[in-house]
Amino acid sequence: MTDRPRTARAIIIGNELLTGKIADKNLATLAGVLRRLGVVLERAVVIPDVAEIIEREVREAALASSWVFTSGGVGPTHDDLTVAAVASAFDEEVVVSPELEALIRLAYGDRLREGHLLMARVPRGCRLVRSDEIPWPATLMRNVWVLPGVPEIFELKMKLVEEIVGAGIPFVS
Question: CB neighbours (10 Å) of residue 100?
Fold first, then answer.
C-alpha cells in the first residue's frame, strides 16, 4: 500500500470562459467533490476551444494524475472538440456509440437533427458510466472523465464520479 494520495487535474475548456462571456462554476463543484473523496486537486487549467491544446493538456494530465476531469467542448455545437481531442490523446479514433445514439434518438424523437447525433461520438475504448439515478452516461476514457460544461449537468455527473472514484479519507480543516 502506498502513502501517495490520489491526485486529479481539471481541464476547463471554452473560449467563452477566456473572454469573460460566462463565469466557470464547474471547478468549484469539482474541487468540493474531490475534497470530500480525499483526492488532491493539484492543477486546473482553463484553455481555449483548440483541439491541439486540449489533446496536449489531456495527454500530460493523464500521465501525471490519478484522475483527469474535462469540462466543456462536448455537445451538438461548433466547438465540440473535446471528444476527438481526448481520443487523439490516447491514439484512438472517434466512434459512434450505439447505446448513446439510441438514447439520443429516443430523447429527441421527431425533433432529431444530425447535430444531435454528434453527442453519440466517443473515443474508442471508453467506458460509459451510468447509474439507475443517472441513466444518461458520462464518458470515462481510462482515467479521463469527459464532462459537459453546462453547470447543472456537470454537477449531476458528480454523483457518477463519486461512485467510480470512491471515497478516500476526506480532507477536513
Answer: 18
- The reported pLDDT for the residue numbered 1 is 47
User: What CA–CA distance (Å, rounded) separates 39 from 107?
Assistant: 35
Q: Are 46 and 23 in contact (CB under 8 A)?
A: no
Number of other residues whose CB lies within 10 A of the CB of residue 93? 11
Distance (Å, whole) CA 112 – CA 114? 7
Q: Are 30 and 41 in contact (CB under 8 A)?
A: yes
Q: Residue 62 and residue 43: Cα distance in Å, rounded? A: 12
C-alpha cell at 142: 481510462
Beta pairing partners, 127: 140
pLDDT mean values, one per 10 residues, the chain (173 residues): 82 95 96 95 97 98 98 77 97 97 95 91 97 93 96 96 82 59
Three cell numbers at 75? 455537445
Task: Give the C-alpha separation, 24 to 133, whole Å.
Answer: 26
Q: Note if the pTM is more than 0.85.
A: yes
Runs of H (alpha helix) within the chain: 15-18, 26-37, 51-64, 82-89, 98-108, 151-165
Q: What is the DSSP letter of 145?
A: E
